[in-house]
Amino acid sequence: MDTEGNDRPHYFKLTQKALNLRYEFESDVEVELGPGGRFEHMTDWAGKLTGQATRLAGLIHCTKHERPHEHPIDAETMESALYLAAVLTEHVKAALDLMNETPGMDCARTIWCWLERESMKEFTQRETLEKVKGRFRTAKEVEGGLEILKDYGLIVEQEKKATRGRPSRVFLVNPLARSK
Q: What is the pLDDT of residue 157?
């Protein structure tokens, strides 16, 4: 019920600036949902992030006005909601990381997504480090992910290739493990 005793819904409008901020945020989230993005492994949750941020803006808006339905949600309110959404995102990512069965599981998933996306049949540890360096910076992190993939029978290690400089570990992808 509203303050006048009416049992009807009220709808909030956004100023053009607030709407532009929302569209920009939505576009950024969509990019991060894709292959190699920050939300690649949490698409179910992150796919709802823009809607959740908009609802947060509505709640913040209600705290600012006695009759919030008579005022549009402004850019400042939307910025506050988007900031909260970013903070909550980091908390969710941390919680999901804690739920991984092993420390290298996130890296293993990222490597596997890359292998499937590019239909890789053979690859080196050096190539892997190059592909995932935005998320995993050290060879030790990548080794953990590769070991998990080996343990699951998704890849097998081959003899080291003779190349100039330091040799790199070479792996074959199990063709029976592909989802496509």
A: 92
User: Nearest to residue 43, comparing CAs of 51, 34, 52?
Assistant: 34
CA distances from 5 to 1, 8, 57, 59, 89 (A): 6, 9, 25, 20, 38
pLDDT given for residue 156 in this prediction: 93
Better-scored residue on pLDDT, 10 or 60: 60
- Comparing CA positions, the residue from 70, 142, 151 lying closest to residue 110 is 142
**Cβ contact 15:73 at 8 Å:** yes
Q: Does residue 148 contact residue 102 with C-beta atoms inside 8 Å? A: yes
**Predicted local confidence at residue 180, as pLDDT:** 47
Contacts of 19 (CB under 8 A, 6+ apart): none
Nearest to 26 by CA among 35, 39, 41, 13: 39
The tens digit of pLDDT for each residue in 97-110 reads 666 556 688 889 88
**Phi, psi values for residue 155, rounded to 5°:** -140, 160
Q: How far is CA 127 from CA 17, 37, 86, 144, 157, in A?
A: 43, 18, 31, 15, 14
